[in-house]
Design brief:
Order of helices and strands: HHHHHHHHHHHHHHHHHHHHHH
Structural class: mainly alpha
Strand content: under 5%
Distance between the termini: 25 Å
Number of helices: 22
Shape: globular
Largest sheet: none
Helix content: over 70%
Radius of gyration: 23 Å
Length: 515
């Protein structure tokens, strides 16, 4: 399967999953608040952020596995064309399995320490948290298998699997909550998704590439070496830094203010948090392909692909910003009530941070594919430290706005400048050459954003009709402004190619059903 077809298949199911997650998730939040109460739901949100730090104990090995497998697959492809031997993917898989099995002991000790030494905010939370920690440790070695499938670009299956497991686990959570299980319902849903995803990926890999799960792979990897552990060290540092900039805002709000205010902050950010995954899907699905291109394509070809990917990210992210800017207050008032809206200042700052993070995400993915995890980690650590420090400093004076502004400063003054500089060095081109393709988009986005604010003031009281009218008008205006720009860039060719591929697949499916 070609890189483009694999990318399209993975992106399609990822978007179906995200759309389902968004629609059902918007209903689940008021359901959770009604079932658990505002305080307990806020405590659960904070507890999940604490548990996320457990993921940092793997030293980044799982994160680098898809890239390493993709690189090895690209080398194997080149060697097959020249008639040489293969085995590079098997060697990477064997080394990763040995490292992950050794790390499981460290993970188990970290999970035990987290359970014993950090008392829960609510005694009723200790049992569910203990269940999550136990399943996390048991399933930890199995996380290798979906990572290998991602590196082999079996993205369509992974997308289908994630969608199926999410549907089943959501039904389980709803049923258990209605039965009165409270925190255990949420914990069981999380455990089902985690364990089911890894086991199904193992089954898939055994059917598609049984050679990667044979005893020969274990022997071919050779004796365990320390450098295997350190290959993901800088990725792990990056994960720590990302946790600082991506998950600490709720912790700061919960500690400096209270758990109930966490729900207000989370509700104001809900549409952004849900929709931010839509642009990122493009970059995350494209990562194995970019890693593969590193071994087989010219820098000019990689630059074109990277620029088009960033333009596609900005196209989606800009539309999301404009729509949320116009409709967020109306939406939250209808969805949960006016008391859960944190204000327009908070909304604007969160949206600006979102847009900058989306643009930077593509740059970071490209740099990661080229092996710059060390510099990316140092940049991310600096970004996280600056963001958290400013947020802690301003939260007592500006409240929620101060927290959001701290994380905006990290994105604007640390991440974006650093990654642009690194990309210019990697691709050996001037800064102006990296920025120039996006200048025509910038003024179009500014006009669309101003129009979105104006539409927000024109429309009346919040209701479903006004909300639908707002999003339709703003979305249409945004498309009319940016599509001429898109059609003048190389992104046009990718869109036309993806449309043709999708149309061909649909016709083949229809003809197959008719026959």
């Amino acid at each position: 399967m070609s890189r483009s077809r694999s990318f399209l298949g993975g992106a399609l199911f990822a978007y179906v999953y995200q759309a389902s997650l968004m629609l059902v998730g918007l209903w689940l939040t008021p359901f959770y608040i009604h079932t658990l109460g505002v305080r307990d739901y806020g405590i659960w949100l904070v507890a999940l952020q604490v548990l996320n730090f457990l993921l940092l104990c793997d030293f980044g090995i799982i994160v680098v596995t898809p890239r390493d497998v993709a690189n090895a697959s690209g080398i194997e492809h080149a060697e097959r064309e020249s008639g040489n031997g293969c085995g590079h993917v098997a060697r990477v898989v064997g080394q990763t399995l040995k490292v992950v099995l050794a790390q499981t002991c460290v993970i188990a000790l970290a999970a035990l320490g987290l359970f014993l030494l950090r008392p829960a905010h609510d005694p009723a939370l200790r049992g569910p948290v203990g269940l999550i920690l136990a399943v996390f440790v048991i399933s930890y070695p199995l996380r290798v298998f979906p990572a290998v499938l991602q590196g082999l670009q079996d993205l369509k299956f992974l997308g289908q699997l994630r969608l199926t497991l999410w549907s089943v686990s959501t039904a389980l959570v709803i049923g258990m909550l209605l039965a009165g299980a409270r925190f255990y319902a949420l914990a069981c849903g999380w455990c089902l998704q985690q364990l089911g995803h890894d086991l199904a990926a193992c089954w898939r890999l055994r059917r598609s590439r049984p050679d990667l799960l044979s005893a020969e792979v274990w022997r071919q990897a050779g004796p365990l070496r320390w450098r295997w552990f350190t290959r993901g060290f800088w990725v792990n540092v990056n994960q720590v830094a990302t946790a600082l900039s991506a998950g600490s805002d709720l912790l700061i709000v919960g500690r400096a203010i209270n758990a109930a205010t966490v729900v207000v902050y989370s509700s104001t950010n809900k549409l952004i948090a849900v929709l931010q995954n839509q642009p990122q899907i493009l970059a995350s699905v494209a990562l194995p392909g970019i890693s593969h291109m590193k071994t087989s394509e010219s820098r000019e070809r990689i630059l074109q692909a990277t620029t088009s990917l960033t333009q596609a990210m900005l196209l989606l992210a800009g539309g999301i910003v404009c729509v949320i800017l116009a409709a967020n207050q109306q939406f939250i008032t209808l969805w949960l009530g006016a008391q859960f809206f944190g204000g327009m200042q908070l909304t604007v700052i969160l949206l600006l941070t979102f847009l900058l993070r989306q643009a930077d995400y593509t740059l970071a993915v490209t740099l990661f594919a080229f092996g710059h995890e060390k510099l990316l980690s140092i940049r991310a650590l600096t970004d996280g430290a600056v963001s958290v420090a400013i947020a802690f400093l301003l939260v007592r004076h500006w409240g929620l706005v101060g927290v959001a502004f701290g994380f905006l400063c990290g994105a604007a003054f640390i991440s974006i400048p650093a990654d642009i500089f690194l990309l210019t060095r990697t691709l050996q081109m001037p800064v102006a050459g990296v920025i120039r393709p996006y200048v025509p988009y910038a003024w179009r986005f500014a006009v669309a954003g101003s129009f979105a604010l104006a539409v927000r003031h024109w429309l009346g009281a919040p209701n479903v009709l006004h909300l639908a009218l707002t999003t339709s008008i703003v979305g249409l205006a945004y498309l009319l402004l940016v599509m001429p720009y898109v059609w003048s860039t190389p992104l046009r060719g990718y869109i036309q190619g993806a449309t043709a591929t999708l149309g061909s697949a649909m016709r083949s499916r229809v003809l197959g059903l008719v026959r």
